[in-house]
């Protein structure tokens, strides 16, 4: 058993990687795709097409709407039907670009072949520019624009790039499948980002995926890039959390309120590495991603790992996978610990979509809440070393100062506290709210301080 | 024995005296000069400490009132005009009367009107639920029904109706402090003028979706058709973002819009019950003469009063 | 699929619950209960039965008629309190005394504070201390009733500690006493006289091992109690072995093992952080030894735990666990 893991908290949910042996299949094209303009953290992208325009797959259809923002490309070829307001998976209206699919024609200059391009451009500005032009965002969950993350503020230096192959969320296997099926591309992608940052690189994979570790080690040895290391980590949730992974790999902690780069680290997901490879070496922007269809009420022969075009409606994928299985009570987009429950199955997939997970009522329904017995299991489980029971109490008392003092703003919303609470107290539900409040206060204070400083000038 | 008793008494008396002197000295030394009127004002305040006035409590309000140059920007919603008059009398200010207000729930998405489309299984808190998603019905604007407003009301004026799943305002208890308005993450609750004899007309919907979408989610939704705005003789109704809004300062309670609304989204409350009329729908456009005939004396006098107020 | 469930994340749960934890504690107590029943026979069974039944009944009655809330007896915490209370009483205790103890434990120490999780003092210990003060004759009657394994009637089973106090008062020295007391290592297995639950240290430790294995409790509280008691007795004993008892003697007598492993580790009334727990344990160990060496009571585990219960809120306030990225 590997000893490498993070030092504080964590839980051990059953990993349930039932779909691990389902090879990636290419999903058929849907009749219509709906491409959201808010597929990343930061400002929404601005559409540059209008109703009636003919577009090809890989063509830019929306431009970044700010510094932290990203290009959006058409995932299919066809006719733009218009910019429509469509509900996302939480039922909130978001502008989408609706495209009727006609054939499958790709924009010029995109290399669709399978040949591995191992030669790395010598100019890192070229790499960065191509990543930006490819609309690559972090595919580990946060969908932070990758080119921004790879371009640290002046004076900040990364000494280690960590490629996150932990996939610590139970059920999900899409990252596992790409690590097994396309390890070479991932390693080249990692080498590209390593070139940009000019530092060493560690690929961290949890040890419940030995095939992935083997495959990556083999391609690192084969491709011969310097300073890339594959590390087997102990299975523990939330290993794939940025801060936890840095602690596990580098034994360093990111100070509260700081970014990983302040601890000298940049973390990118394996799927992001693959997207970087395709964007830089193949000129192919981020228009596809891998998604797992799985669940405890889904027989293994109906589980899939799909390569899908971004913007495909969830309902289309669900139909392709044989419909909603008997007994499914909850549909989750993402993992069971941090994913979002779907209330609107007509919602379209986005760049960060990683799964459709069906759970039965028995697996997911919360038991009625009872009194806190002060067992401290939430504090033991919290990977940030917080005391969820205390934060919950302070939130209910409306004590914003107390919340800030007890570091509610450090919460990463991993769900370990609620997962381990024997009294089923909705700790994270309340703490998430409290965190929002305190973050608002902190931001307002920072803005006031900035305004005051400028007034002095 | 007697010695012990006497000694005890003497010592205790001495200790008491010394402590009294210390207390006297401390009280004198650390005395804070305060305007005595603050105490007087505080005495006439309702003492609810609800914060509805925008100050931390009744004492803070009294303090601010004494320091303020006039009372124009200050109002105690709980005590209303009576209290403000008393405060003004103490401070020697003039005060304008304000129309009393009441909290109005602008959603009629009852369980029957607005079928549930999914089951919410998180903590029973409107804030959390609204932050998570659009809610357990097709309507992404209306009441989410977890009762944050009920918890926020310290006058016991709000309660959840288990039949409809919506909050109900007890007008006799509502002080218009505004706590529920702040607590509601959906902005469903609004403070509106209470109206003569508590009669009010308002749009009981906040859905900004297009007509069809809104109607599909809730049979009592405002579909933004604009018929009410056209029929309103006082220009009190505006339609913005597919949603009608009645300006309560302009509304003259003629109820024409109520009859016109195709979904019944406009509510008229506390009007005296009219005697049953056989051909109600047809009579609606020509409501005025018919209504005058049928209106009981009470309502007519009210209308006269209104006319006088104009 | 009827209607989809929607909730904030996480969507899965470890599926532990308060009743599962309490069940684990009951399982952990089982060996010690078994041994005590074997040794004390029917009367011990009666005490156990009355104690558990009355604890559960009192909690049910209070939730139903006084608080008018849904009943909480399903979480099994009243059963645990009942068992612990019974294990802290002599097997000869009359049933009505046991009932009063249960009434105080659940009615006063637990439910007046708002039920499970809200109480400041350990309910079972509060009940026991109340009985100790109110009915000292019953509580110090260590006549041994006949058990299932040995049929000797009415053996004087005075606890080693109270026997020692008496012996010291009558002028004998510690070495005389320890020589006369056929304790030694045998006591670890069965022969610890006194409250029912204290009879077998091995059985208690086996149960505690189970709790550790199931990750129900952490080891630091019992460990710090044992270490403190050992250290203090070692110092005093080496200074004057005639006036102060030794390490092993103090560890295995007077309910130290039962108290440290099962009572001091009660979630509700012990600190949540590791540092807090260690200080709490040291406090208990220190107070126990002070009572034993200088107090008038023969043992002091119950008092020590109760006194340290008062400090728990402060310890919880002062000591927090280490946070990520904030050293």
Give the number of helices of chain C: 15
Structural class of chain C: mainly alpha
- Oligomer state equals heterotrimer
SS elements, strand count of chain C: 3
Annotated CATH topology of the largest domain in chain B: Alpha-Beta Plaits
User: Which spans of chain B of ≥5 residues are poorly predicted at pLDDT below 50?
Assistant: 279-310
Uncertain segments of chain C are 150-156, 180-191
Mean pLDDT figure of chain B: 84
Summarize the amount of helix of chain B as a percent range: 25-40%
Widest sheet: strand ordering of chain B = 1-5
Strand content of chain B: 5-15%
Can you describe what's shown?
The complex is a heterotrimer of chains A (457), B (310) and C (327). Chain A contains 14 helices and 17 strands. Chain A has 457 residues and is α/β, with parallel strands linked by helices. Chain A has a six-stranded mixed sheet. In chain A, helix 3 (174-181) runs parallel beside helix 5 (210-223) and helix 4 (183-197) packs across helix 5. The mean pLDDT of chain A is 93. Chain B folds into two domains: 38-91, 3-methyladenine DNA Glycosylase II, Chain A, domain 3 (Orthogonal Bundle); 101-271 and 282-298, Alpha-Beta Plaits. In chain B, the strands form four sheets. Chain B has a two-stranded antiparallel sheet. Chain B has a two-stranded antiparallel sheet with strand order 3-4. The relative contact order of chain B is 0.09. Chain C has helices at 18-40, 42-67, 77-87, 95-110, 123-134, 136-139, 160-169, 174-180, 186-189, 201-213, 220-239, 247-252, 256-263, 274-294, 301-318; strands spanning 4-6, 143-144, 155-156. The radius of gyration of chain C is 21 Å and the shape is globular. Chain C has a two-stranded antiparallel ribbon with strand order 2-3. Chain C starts with a strand and ends in a 9-residue tail after the last helix. Chains in contact: A-B, A-C, B-C. At the A-C interface, strand 15, strand 16, helix 9, helix 13 and helix 14 of A face strand 1 and helix 1 of C. Strand 2 of chain B pairs parallel with strand 1 of chain C.
């Amino acid at each position: 058993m590997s000893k490498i893991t993070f030092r504080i908290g964590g839980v051990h949910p059953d990993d349930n990687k039932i779909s691990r042996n389902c090879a990636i299949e290419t999903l058929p094209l849907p009749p219509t795709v709906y491409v959201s303009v808010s597929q990343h953290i930061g400002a929404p992208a601005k559409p540059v097409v209008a109703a009636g325009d003919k577009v090809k797959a890989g063509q830019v259809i929306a431009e970044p709407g700010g510094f932290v923002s990203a290009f959006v490309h058409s995932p299919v070829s066809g006719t733009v039907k218009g910019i429509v307001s469509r509900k996302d998976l939480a039922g909130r209206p978001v502008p989408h670009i609706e495209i009727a699919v006609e054939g499958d024609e790709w924009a010029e200059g995109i290399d669709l072949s399978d040949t591995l391009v191992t030669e790395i451009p010598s100019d890192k500005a070229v790499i960065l520019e191509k990543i930006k032009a490819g609309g690559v965002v972090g595919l580990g969950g946060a969908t932070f624009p990758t080119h921004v993350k790879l371009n640290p503020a002046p004076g900040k230096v990364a000494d280690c790039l960590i490629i996150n192959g932990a996939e610590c969320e139970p059920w999900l296997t899409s990252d596992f499948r790409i690590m097994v099926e396309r390890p070479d591309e991932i390693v080249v992608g990692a080498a590209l980002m390593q070139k940009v940052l000019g530092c060493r690189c560690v690929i961290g994979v949890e040890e419940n995926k030995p095939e992935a570790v083997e495959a990556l080690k083999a391609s690192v040895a084969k491709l011969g890039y310097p300073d890339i290391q594959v590390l087997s980590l102990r299975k523990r949730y939330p290993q794939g959390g940025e801060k936890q992974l840095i602690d596990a790999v580098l034994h360093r902690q990111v100070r509260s309120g700081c970014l990983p780069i302040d601890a000298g680290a940049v973390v990118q997901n394996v799927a992001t590495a693959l997207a970087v490879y395709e964007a830089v070496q193949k000129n192919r922007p981020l228009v596809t991603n891998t998604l797992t269809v799985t669940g405890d009420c889904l027989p293994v022969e109906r589980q899939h790992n799909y390569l899908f075009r971004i913007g495909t409606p969830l309902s289309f994928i669900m139909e392709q996978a044989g419909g909603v299985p008997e007994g499914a009570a909850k549909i989750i987009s993402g993992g069971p610990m941090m994913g979002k429950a779907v209330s609107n199955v007509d919602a379209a997939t986005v760049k960060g979509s990683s799964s459709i997970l069906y759970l039965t009522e028995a697996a997911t329904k919360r038991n009625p809440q009872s009194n806190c017995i002060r067992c401290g299991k939430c504090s033991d489980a919290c990977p940030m070393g917080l005391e969820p029971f205390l934060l919950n109490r302070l939130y209910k008392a409306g004590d914003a100062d107390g919340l800030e003092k007890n570091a509610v703003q450090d919460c990463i919303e991993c769900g370990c506290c609620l997962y381990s609470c024997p009294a089923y107290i909705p700790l994270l539900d309340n703490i998430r709210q409290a965190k929002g409040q305190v973050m608002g206060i902190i931001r307002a204070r920072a803005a006031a301080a900035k305004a005051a400083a400028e007034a002095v000038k | 024995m007697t010695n012990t008793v006497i000694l005890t008494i003497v010592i205790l008396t001495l200790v008491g005296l010394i402590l009294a002197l210390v207390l006297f000295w401390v009280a004198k030394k650390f005395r804070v000069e305060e305007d005595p009127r603050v105490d007087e004002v505080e005495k006439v305040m309702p003492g609810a400490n609800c914060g509805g006035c925008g100050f931390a409590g009744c004492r803070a309000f009294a303090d601010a009132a004494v320091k303020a140059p006039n009372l124009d920007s200050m109002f105690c919603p709980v005590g209303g005009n009576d209290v403000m008059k008393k405060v003004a009398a103490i401070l020697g200010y003039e005060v304008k009367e304000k129309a009393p207000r009441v909290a109005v729930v602008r959603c009629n998405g009852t369980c029957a009107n607005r079928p549930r489309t999914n089951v919410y299984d998180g903590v029973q808190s409107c804030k959390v639920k609204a932050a998570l998603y659009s809610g357990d019905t097709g309507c992404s604007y209306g009441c989410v029904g977890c009762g944050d407003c009920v918890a926020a009301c310290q006058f016991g004026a709000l309660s959840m109706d288990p039949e409809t799943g919506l909050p109900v305002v007890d007008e006799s208890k509502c002080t218009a402090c505004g706590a529920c308005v702040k607590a509601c993450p959906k902005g469903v609750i609004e403070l509106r003028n209470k109206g003569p004899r508590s009669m009010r007309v308002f749009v009981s919907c906040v859905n900004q979706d297009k007509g069809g979408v809104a109607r599909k989610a809730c049979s009592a939704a405002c579909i933004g058709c604009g018929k009410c705005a056209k029929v309103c003789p006082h220009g009190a109704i505006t339609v913005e973002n597919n949603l009608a809004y009645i300006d309560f300062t302009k509304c003259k309670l003629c109820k024409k819009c109520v009859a016109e609304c195709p979904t019944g989204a406009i509510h008229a409350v506390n009007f005296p019950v009219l005697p049953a009329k056989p051909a109600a729908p047809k009579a609606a456009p020509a409501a005025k003469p018919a209504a005058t005939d049928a209106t009981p004396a009470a309502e007519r006098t009210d209308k006269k009063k209104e006319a006088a107020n104009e | 699929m009827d209607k989809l469930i929607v909730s904030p994340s996480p969507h899965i749960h470890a599926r532990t619950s308060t009743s599962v934890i309490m069940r684990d504690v009951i399982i952990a107590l089982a060996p010690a209960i078994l041994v005590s029943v074997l040794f004390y026979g029917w009367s011990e069974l009666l005490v156990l039965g009355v104690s558990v039944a009355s604890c559960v009944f009192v909690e049910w009655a209070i939730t139903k008629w006084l608080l008018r809330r849904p009943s909480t007896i399903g979480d099994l915490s009243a059963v645990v309190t009942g068992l612990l209370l019974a294990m802290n009483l002599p097997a000869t205790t009359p049933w009505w005394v046991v009932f009063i103890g249960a009434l105080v434990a659940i009615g006063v120490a637990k439910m007046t504070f708002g039920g499970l999780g809200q109480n400041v003092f350990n309910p079972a210990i509060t009940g026991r201390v109340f009985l100790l003060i109110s009915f000292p004759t019953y509580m110090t009657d260590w006549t041994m009733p006949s058990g299932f394994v040995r049929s000797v009637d009415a053996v004087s089973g005075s606890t080693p500690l109270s026997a020692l106090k008496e012996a010291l008062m009558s002028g004998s020295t510690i070495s005389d006493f320890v020589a006369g007391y056929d304790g030694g290592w045998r006591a670890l297995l069965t022969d610890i006289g006194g409250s029912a639950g204290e009879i077998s240290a091995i059985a208690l430790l086996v149960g505690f091992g189970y709790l550790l294995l199931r990750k129900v409790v952490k080891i630091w509280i019992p460990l710090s109690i044992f270490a403190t008691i050992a250290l203090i007795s070692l110092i005093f004993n080496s200074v004057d072995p005639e006036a102060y008892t030794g390490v092993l003697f103090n560890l295995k007598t007077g309910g130290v093992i039962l108290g440290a492993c099962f009572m001091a580790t009660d979630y509700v009334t012990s600190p949540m952080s590791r540092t807090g727990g260690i200080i709490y344990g040291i406090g208990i160990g220190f107070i126990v030894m002070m009572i034993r060496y200088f107090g008038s009571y023969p043992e002091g585990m119950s008092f020590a735990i109760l006194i340290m219960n008062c400090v728990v809120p402060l310890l919880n306030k002062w000591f927090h666990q280490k946070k990520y990225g904030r050293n």
